[in-house]
Structure formats: C-alpha cells, structure tokens
Design goal:
mainly beta, seven-stranded mixed sheet, 0% helix, globular
Amino acid sequence: QAQLVESGGGLVQAGGSLRLSCVTSGIIFRDYVMGWFRQAPGREREFVASISRSGKNTEYADSVKGRFTISRDNARNTVILQMNNLNSEDTAVYYCSAARTQGSIWVTRSRDFEYDDWGQGTQVTVSS
C-alpha cells in the first residue's frame, strides 16, 4: 500500500523560505512521476510542480516559476519542494502526489487526475 508522508510546512514571513519533503513507501519510487499540488481555503486544488521519473525534467505552475524548485532522490524515495520568496498567495495545504508512469522517464504531469496516490498534506502559512 502506497504511503506518502509530507513534512516541512509551517508559518513563515513573506519573503521567507520553506523546504517541503515527501517520503514515500509501498511504491517503486523510480516508476512514478512525482508532483506537488496545493489547496487554499475556498479554492480548488491546483498544480504546483512535477518532476519526471529520471529527475531531469521539471514543470511548474506559472505562479511559482523562479521561486520554487522540485527535486527527487530516487535512492531515498523522497521528493523535495524548495520554496523561496514566499508570499501570502502561497498559503495553502500542500500535497505530495505520485503518478505511476510506464515507458518514458522524461514526462511530467500537471493534472491531478493523472495521479494515483496522495499524501495527507502539510500546511504552509505565509504572513505578510
């Protein structure tokens, strides 16, 4: 059974940084495209970032480009989201997600229905 456990959320001032981690178990990590999504109160869940199985390709929402970096460690079954220059619009619950992907090690995925497994989420609050 797949388990995705996020950590690293918290309260930070605008302009600050946070590093989210997602440790997975119960899946063959290298077979999965990994992603981060977020959901703010009263809003739909939205895509944040994705990383290919190889780790060589990444994709970001326009709202976070240049500020967030997604990375993965296939040896440790872990995906990281480094978030810099945070602002109040980044306040949300952040979810780690895994999409089993056969074939290409280069593709990324940005639509939530493409993902098979989800973590419980970690709260990120940015104070202005």
